[in-house]
Write a structure and sequence with these properties.
It is built from 13 helices and no strands. The chain is mainly α. Helix 5 packs across helix 6 and helix 9 packs antiparallel against helix 10. The radius of gyration is 27 Å and the shape is elongated.
């Protein structure tokens, strides 16, 4: 082939990659992004934009301006990828997310360990997998692997993304313990009820939940382990305070007789115990709180409808 023919072919190929505004139409392929040193700055800029938007914390993309993937899309195409034409398809935000997940997975599986972008990408992928697990676990009843075609749509796997359930918003608001979506009763003011708890129980509840949140959103394994190890100290102090409020958690013989409560006191105590139960660990902690809750409710029912106690043989 003559040099003129080669030049013409190259010009035609270049023109095919440009849109009417003179911008490149397509992102570089994933294998080029992770395999060529010339793309490292570009890839690093994309990962920085993804991090700034908080996209790794969002399991799903949407066309809503409040969605983290929507924000990441704007940051990428308004910054590091401003030389590329902006996709306009109906599912552009979903496809954008899928492309980023594909890049993360490629860096995890195919990139060398010393790739300059790999560490940042792995931290983002870990965070994204945790976000997907929070959404998917209540919906399917099991902790299915994230990053596979079952949980994530990828351009190579052809799988279908699991539709987020309502539990995602409940979990985000309430922390990392609580009943599944559809069971959570929303018509009480948790903040107000928690404020009625005695100290140090009230403060220790906040500290324990904050520490759980920190551990759940930490991608660095050693930091996560340190947080989980340190949480044992908070748990011990919290259980001591809970023991004082709800009754001993381990020794049936040490339980004190129930003090009589008036109607308002019984109702307030029942609400407080129910809120604490939302954040309780399975096992003895839940059992003790449930028993204390039932006793408080029994006292309330005794005040408002004594015949119900007699009819159903409920002892106070």
């Amino acid at each position: 082939m003559s040099s003129k023919t080669e030049d013409a072919a190259a010009a035609a190929a270049a023109a095919a990659e440009m849109d009417e505004l003179g911008k490149r139409k397509f992102f570089p392929r994933v294998k080029h992004l992770i395999g060529n040193k010339e793309w490292e700055d570009f890839l690093n800029g994309i990962l920085d934009a993804i991090e700034a938007a908080g996209a790794p914390h969002a399991a799903a993309a949407s066309h809503k301006a409040s969605n983290a993937w929507y924000k990441a899309f704007d940051l990428v195409y308004g910054g590091v990828a401003s030389d590329y034409s902006i996709p306009t398809g109906k599912n552009r935000y979903h496809k954008f997310k899928d492309k980023i997940v594909e890049v993360w997975c490629a860096l995890e599986q195919d990139a060398p360990a010393d790739h300059p972008c790999r560490g940042k990408a792995m931290a983002q992928l870990d965070t994204y997998r945790q976000a997907c697990a929070e959404v998917n676990k209540p919906a399917v009843g099991s902790s299915s692997a994230v990053g596979t075609p079952k949980a994530v749509r990828t351009s190579t796997g052809g799988g279908t993304a699991t539709k987020p359930s309502v539990i995602s918003s409940a979990t985000a608001k309430r922390g990392f313990a609580g009943p599944p979506s559809g069971v959570l009763y929303k018509n009480i003011d948790e903040v107000k009820i928690i404020a009625t708890l005695p100290e140090p129980l009230q403060s220790l509840l906040h500290l324990r939940q904050l520490q759980r949140e920190m551990a759940a959103t930490t991608a660095v394994r050693i930091t996560k382990k340190n947080l989980e190890d340190h949480s044992r100290k908070v748990d011990t102090a919290y259980l001591d305070a809970l023991n004082e409020f709800a009754g001993p958690l381990d020794d049936e013989d040490e339980k004190k007789p129930d003090e009589p409560l008036d109607k308002d006191e019984a109702f307030a105590r029942a609400q407080a115990l129910a809120v604490l139960y939302r954040y309780a660990n399975p096992g003895m902690e839940q059992r003790t709180l449930s028993e204390a809750y039932q006793k408080a409710v029994d006292q309330y029912v005794t005040h408002v409808c004594p015949s119900a106690m007699e009819e159903h043989s409920i002892s106070v």
